Fold this sequence. Notes:
Number of domains: 1
Number of strands: 7
Shape: globular
Distance between the termini: 36 Å
Structural class: alpha/beta
Strand content: 15-25%
CATH superfamily: Peptidyl-tRNA hydrolase
Strand order of the largest sheet: 2-3-4-1-5-7-6
Mean pLDDT: 94
CATH architecture: 3-Layer(aba) Sandwich
Number of helices: 6
CATH topology: Rossmann fold
Amino acid sequence: MSDAPWLVIGLGNPGPEHAGTRHNAGRMVVERLADDLNAGALRRERRLNASVATAVATDTAGPHRMLLAEPGSYMNLSGGPVAALVGYYHVRPDHLIVVHDDLDLPFGTLRLKRGGGHGGHNGLRDIIAALKTPDFLRVRVGIDRPHTRQPVADYVLRPFTTVERRELPMLVSDAADAVQAIALDGLEAAQRRVHAPRS
Length: 199
């Protein structure tokens, strides 16, 4: 098994009242990944202020250990739990994958990247400040911007629309597959696959 574990963080807000909201797209992906990899339910780790599950993804090169986690804090305070997880599990920035919602992408779009700014996303802003580096991997899950004058802060905390909910399972599944592709094949190969135009 590879010595360097992958740490996959699903961003969102805790509590059942936030479970189906746009801002929790990252958590949805990590929970789907836990199902896909038979990792079981994420377990609360109080000392880390996070919920964690251990999974193994396997390819021809062998097994790769993956730590799936959700911060126990609210989105804007994600940095503390992420820094605690990175320190506790000795994870390098190039093995940290943060999955998050993205207003700048149309709903249903996925983009993979390494580094860059926070783009106004307060969860990313706090993680970058806590880690003192932006050089981790991101899986950006497009949720689109509001098409009305609804404030963005309200929009991201609202549930997906009925139409969006019909497409949401495929989006979450594709994002979970993208995380595995990064871990198994590398970022560039995963980008070629995920960013390719659909026929």
